[in-house]
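Below is a concrete protein record.
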Amino acid sequence: MNNFVIAQIFGILGIIFSVVSMQMKTKKNIMIMLLCLNLASALNFLFLNSISGSLVCFFAVFETFINYLYDSKGKKVPIYMIAFYVVVNLALGFYSYKGLLDLIPVACALIYCATVCTKKETNIRKEMFANQTLWLIYDLIVKAYMFSISNILTLISIVISMIRFDYCKEMKK
């Protein structure tokens, strides 16, 4: 199998994790799905030879896992960890920078830093909407076609989950 086909297989897995993640009600379950999504994304980009996207996503696996551990203990992620995430993401962006296109994964990584540190599921969905929109642009440009489909389906899933969990809840009040 060639690298392009392998990348698309990881893209299909990413579609599943991405869409399912936004239909989870609790942050714990969202984080587990995001961890799997980032791993599939990192491998997808690696097989497409998109180093910037791959590095950002591999680091997001680490970031998500650490934040999951803090959340599972009911603790807030310390500010020094958040600062560490930002510095590492900027360093990865600097290291892999070859052109303006490489700034998109860095912007996505910085949005993701905020997302995984956010407590309210409502805000997670809003931040993921911005994140997925930027990834859609990047994925189309680097030919990560399965992840482009994933981005579109995830954006739809986010809107559905916003209606289900956020707006319907507001209407009941």
In short: The two ends are 54 Å apart (CA to CA). Residues 145-172 form the longest helix (28 residues). The helical segments are 3-21, 27-47, 51-72, 79-96, 103-117, 121-142, 145-172.
